[in-house]
Design a protein that fits this description.
Mean pLDDT of chain B: 83
Number of helices of chain A: 13
Structural class of chain B: mainly alpha
Distance between the termini of chain B: 36 Å
Shape of chain B: globular
Number of strands of chain B: 7
Helix content of chain A: 25-40%
Low-confidence stretches of chain B: 1-23, 127-157, 280-331
Mean pLDDT of chain A: 87
Radius of gyration of chain A: 23 Å
Low-confidence stretches of chain A: 1-35
Strand order of the largest sheet of chain B: 1-3-2
Largest sheet of chain B: 3 strands, antiparallel
Shape of chain A: globular
Strand content of chain A: 5-15%
Number of helices of chain B: 36
Distance between the termini of chain A: 33 Å
Radius of gyration of chain B: 27 Å
Helix content of chain B: 40-55%
Structural class of chain A: alpha/beta
Oligomer: heterodimer
Largest interface: A-B, 89 and 87 residues
Largest sheet of chain A: 9 strands, mixed
Number of strands of chain A: 12
């Protein structure tokens, strides 16, 4: 890839003799001398489930008889119904929602762990505030300028690729606000200088841009443009258009499925990706949440199928990747009058990876009796989300400074990764 | 002393005005901008002014500023009194701009209220229980939160049954004369874009952009959406060339801020004595739920039990129409420090302003009770016995527009803020005293001076400049016009290294490109979409910090590519709703090659800049048959590094 890059730049010099100064040559030489930031890297893939997933529907404590009483229309039991109507028993009193069937093999292989009764110490039930707190990693503090994933990128401690942090979303999420470079893009195939309907003009303009930015004052614009054109070249060279997921990787056509498909592509293309972000929406199930069918089941099926396809697609790259889901809070234990659940407190997270202590529900569930519940109604938070984020970022990405990653937090990591 | 420096004629004419002004603060002396001393040509200096105190030059504008004189141009901009007929004509189509905040809330109801009303009207099935209303309300939020507003609840609802319900509700809403909230947000964004592109009083628009961002409120917080337009219009815009203290007070009392930073929900901690303890007891003894578990609009505001009828049957329809969303209902009573913290850290002293966490708590206590008038609250208050209203006023209740001070939620104890002792029991005055204290504080002067210097001079402004601006702020008692004037008079503003040193924000880029082309914006949506794609969705920076005003926040790999593509797309006529005539711009000259086109258009689009490098770099290219040479040249110039700078 570097060979191709240098070749292309050399071609650029021939074409734009006047624009290419010695500065550019120095820069390329310097880049070539450094350890290549590209290549295989450990990658942390995060999925934000916006709207607050009902953790008790996703991974139900079926051993708690009170759940069926509080949720007459929603609760499933492992025994109650036949076939795919029943919850998928995980043993030890827990069961997956049937729509999460796609995750069951990963659970059985002990690569998938669940952290239950996890969430934020801040009691807010506002989506906005809770998402904000989870993405900044500073519950209760709105003014934190950076997101925790951006801080993680900044703490990687090595030269990084222009494609080190990529969010497959229309705008950069709060989690990636900050000074470390990060890209938001929904369609990698459009990551180029482009003018639809005038491809040759776009190519000529692209060459013009490259020459102009190379010739501009040697500061931010020049450096970033260098990274930009490198990223464009890397992507062009890695032939996204020709990308075919591995056999058996059947991605849903949903935004999440397509985001994970592109993340898998980036991982396998060895472009130096280290932090990836994707979103899954529609979890705010106030009305007609449904048991085996309905809003929740559709969202859950999309989540499970997307993750399962992603994992299959990764194939030999599975050891490089840890995938982690998060959601801003959980939902009320009791179902409401319209067959849904309202904003609650604790929920659950999924953590997937070869080094993950999988096949286990981590965290403490102090029962579902009213006095065990948060404000008498919600699953309490017994594990701070930062204990999980810190463990994953620390072990998988090698970030040692928990205090820099989560300013003001003095808690302990939850042991999850080998 | 300064009045003496004026020419006798002007001084004479202005004598009546100056007698008054001089008494308050020293009047400014004649403007002196040291551009000649710094070696700028008059054209270069005019272009620099237009880059910094306006959203870039329109065709021929540099020449116009030179002709009228640079000093005079800036004085007119500081006075902000130029007639704006062209802009007014464009804004006339945006009817929300003229509405009162209450009228906006009425015509553009928040989705939860809309859905609850639709339910009561029988448009949506349901048994009519209040609990169900609340659940449906939350669902209503989700139902209207599609498209660009997805962030909060995720994807649009695809469920066919719900889609049908939604259509029915929307149909019903139209029949009632309700309009979608996103239309209100559309008007908010359109007016910002139109003003930036077409206003003659450009400096005022640059400052509105700056100060809104300083006191940022974000539409990503659903609860603020009804209030954003009024917030900018009423709390920011009138004060950008006035006193900082006035703007600070206006933002502190505005519903947008009260909701966004949660002060509306902050109350004296459980067990603390409030200003109106008797009322609290009475209320608790009554049949109703205590106030802290009730909700007003969006559940953000506790209702005012004493100000409404004594029985449930007397409830006003609009109060019932705005039930609490479930997440707010059981919020325990207590202090919320968010506003207090950001007030100190972001709005005034700055993060290193020398305050402690204890100051944050004390300030939060001073602001307890600063909340919103619930919907219908004013009418209920008017209907209540006059004697009761008097009694409440005597206890310290105060209301002003949508602002309401609730004595029964206010922590009545003594406070100590930044070492200053606040006597107990002074109610709403305590918050005002905090604002006075903060607005006068030297740390605030420095913090604001630095932010203005960053905006107008460079990302790392010289310390001496910051000190000078802070001194002007202090001497003039926070007169923002005088501080901006001092920026223009500073040698740092005219230092050679300040030239082109700021990277345009995506909004500045889009607006300056359209202005440079002399384009007609018939529909703002295309430009707004591009602005968002380049990384700046207007009014949607979710953190209270506002958009960072630094190059490294705007220039990253993805956004830079989008900036280049924006240049190409705009030049090729591909940005929806934007029209311009490149031939006319060049006075009808027809370049044969891109080389000629670059040489022709670069000085037109980037007047007063050194462009030899750009022109030389782009010389040797093959002509492309797909596009006219000038389109490609203009696209490359608009996407060039030089055009990213101001």
């Amino acid at each position: 890839m570097w060979t191709r890059r240098v070749f292309l730049k050399a071609g650029g010099i021939a074409l734009f003799g006047l624009g290419a100064g010695p500065r550019f040559l120095v820069r390329t030489a310097r880049a070539a001398a450094l350890p290549a930031p590209l290549g295989r890297r450990k990658v942390l893939v995060t999925i934000f489930q916006r709207g607050a997933m009902d953790g008790l529907a996703a991974v139900a404590p079926v051993a708690e008889p009170v759940l069926g009483r509080l949720r007459p229309r929603l609760a499933l039991s492992a025994a109650r119904a036949a076939g795919d109507e029943k919850a998928l028993d995980l043993g030890t009193g827990w069961a997956f929602h049937p729509a999460l069937a796609g995750l069951l093999p990963l659970w059985r292989e002990r690569r998938l762990a669940i952290v239950h009764a996890v969430g934020s110490p801040d009691p807010t039930r506002s989506h906005f505030d809770a998402q904000d707190y989870m993405e900044t990693g500073t519950p209760g503090r709105k003014g934190t300028p950076s997101g925790w994933l951006n801080r993680a990128v900044g703490l990687l401690g090595h030269d990084a690729s222009p494609l080190r942090a990529v969010s497959l979303t229309p705008a950069l999420p709060r989690a990636l606000y900050g000074t470390a470079p990060a890209i938001a893009v929904t369609d990698l195939s459009r990551f180029e200088v482009r003018l639809p309907g005038a491809e040759r003009a776009a190519a000529a303009a692209g060459a013009g841009f490259e020459a102009l930015y190379r010739g501009t004052a040697p500061e931010l614009l020049q450096e970033t443009a260098g990274e930009t054109f490198e990223a464009v070249e890397i992507l062009a060279a890695s032939e996204l258009a020709a990308y075919r997921p591995a056999a058996g990787a059947d991605y849903p056509q949903s935004p999440l499925g397509q985001a994970l498909r592109q993340i898998a592509f980036l991982v396998k293309a060895k472009v130096g990706l280290e932090v990836a972000f994707a979103e899954s929406g529609g979890w705010d199930t106030h009305v007609a949440q449904g048991a085996t069918r309905g809003t929740f089941a559709r969202r859950a099926a999309d989540l499970a199928q997307s993750i399962a396809a992603f994992w299959t697609d990764l194939g030999a790259y599975q050891d490089d990747v840890v995938l982690m889901t998060m959601t801003e809070f959980g939902r009320t234990v009791r179902e409401n009058g319209s067959g849904g659940t309202d904003h609650g407190h604790g929920s659950c997270m999924f953590v997937l990876g070869s080094q993950v202590a999988g096949g286990k529900v981590h965290g403490k569930l102090p029962g579902l009796s009213p006095d065990a519940l948060h404000e008498g109604r919600d699953l309490p938070v017994t594990t701070d989300f930062r204990a999980v984020f810190c463990e994953v970022a620390g072990k998988h990405l090698g970030i040692g400074d928990d205090g820099a990653l989560f300013p003001g937090w003095t808690g302990k990591r939850l042991p999850l990764l080998a | 002393m300064h009045a003496r420096a004026l020419t006798p004629l002007v001084a004479l004419a202005a004598v009546a005005v100056f007698v008054i002004t001089v008494a308050a603060a020293p009047a400014p002396s004649a403007l002196h901008m040291p551009w000649r001393e710094a070696g700028w040509s008059e054209r270069e200096a005019a272009a620099h002014l237009l880059d910094r105190f306006a959203f870039g030059a329109r065709p021929g504008e540099v020449e116009k500023v030179v002709a009228m004189g640079l000093d005079r141009w800036l004085e007119r901009q500081l006075a902000a009194d130029l007639p704006d007929h062209d802009l007014d004509r464009r804004l006339a189509r945006l009817d929300a701009l003229e509405m009162s905040a209450a009228e906006m809330a009425r015509q553009f109801p928040r989705p939860p209220r809309l859905l609850a009303e639709a339910r009561r009207a029988g448009v949506v099935e349901g048994r009519g229980e209040r609990a169900r209303d609340e659940e449906m309300s939350a669902a209503g939020e989700e139902m209207q939160d599609t498209g660009e507003a997805m962030q909060e609840t995720g994807e649009p609802v695809r469920d066919p049954a719900r889609a049908e319900t939604r259509r029915a509700v929307m149909r019903w809403a139209r029949e009632q004369g309700y309009r979608p909230e996103r239309e209100l947000l559309g008007q908010l964004m359109a007016q910002k874009l139109y003003r930036a592109v077409y206003a003659e009083n450009q400096l005022a628009e640059v400052l509105v952009d700056f100060w809104f961002n300083h006191f940022n409120v974000s539409l990503t917080d659903n609860r603020t959406r009804t209030y954003l337009l009024a917030y900018e219009r009423d709390a920011i815009r009138p004060h950008v060339l006035g006193k900082f203290r006035t703007m600070l007070g206006a933002t502190a009392q505005h519903p947008a801020m009260l909701v966004y930073l949660d002060n509306a929900q902050s109350s004296a901690a459980e067990g603390t004595v409030t200003l109106a303890p008797g009322m609290t007891e009475r209320r608790r003894g009554g049949r109703r739920r205590p106030p802290e578990v009730r909700g007003g609009a969006d559940g953000a505001v506790p209702e005012l039990p004493e100000m409404q009828g004594a029985t449930g049957a007397a409830r006003e329809p609009e109060a019932a129409a705005a039930p609490a969303s479930p997440e707010r209902r059981r919020r325990p009573r207590g202090l919320n420090e968010n506003y207090a913290r950001e007030l100190l850290e972001l709005h005034t002293l700055g993060v290193d302003g020398g305050y402690t966490q204890q100051d944050v708590v004390e300030v939060a206590r001073a602001f307890t009770g600063w909340t919103l008038m619930p919907p219908g609250g004013r009418r209920r208050a008017a209907q209540a016995a006059p004697a009761r209203a008097e009694r409440m006023a005597a206890m310290g209740y105060e209301s002003n527009g949508a602002f309401l001070f609730r004595a029964d939620l206010h922590d009545a104890g003594a406070k100590t803020v930044l070492g200053q002792r606040f006597q107990a029991g002074r109610g709403v005055e305590e918050g005002r005293q905090v604002l006075d204290l903060l607005a006068k504080h030297p740390a605030t002067a420095r913090h604001l001076a630095r932010k203005l210097a960053v905006r107008f001079v460079g990302d790392e402004p010289p310390a001496a400049l910051v000190e000078r601006l802070a001194a002007v702020y202090t001497q003039t008692n926070g007169d923002l016009r005088r501080v901006v004037r001092a920026v223009a008079e500073s040698p740092d503003f005219w230092a050679k290294e300040a030239r082109g040193a700021k990277i345009k924000s995506p909004f500045e880029l889009a607006v300056s490109a359209v202005r440079a082309l002399g384009a007609e914006v018939a529909d703002p949506r295309g430009l707004l979409q591009w602005t968002a794609q380049m990384g700046q969705r207007l009014y949607a920076y979710s953190a209270p910090t506002g958009f960072p005003d630094r190059a490294d926040a705007w220039v990253n790999t993805g956004s830079l590519l989008n900036r280049m593509n924006f240049g190409l797309q705009l030049a090729s006529g591909g940005v929806r709703g934007v029209r311009f005539d490149l031939a006319a711009l060049a006075g009808g000259r027809e370049p044969a090659t891109r080389e000629e086109a670059v040489a022709l258009y670069a000085p037109l689009l980037l007047p007063g800049r050194a462009l030899d490098g750009v022109i030389a770099t782009l010389k040797p290219t093959a002509d492309d048959p797909e596009l006219a040479a000038r389109v490609e040249a203009v696209g490359v110039i608009l996407g060039s590094p030089e055009f990213q700078r101001r």
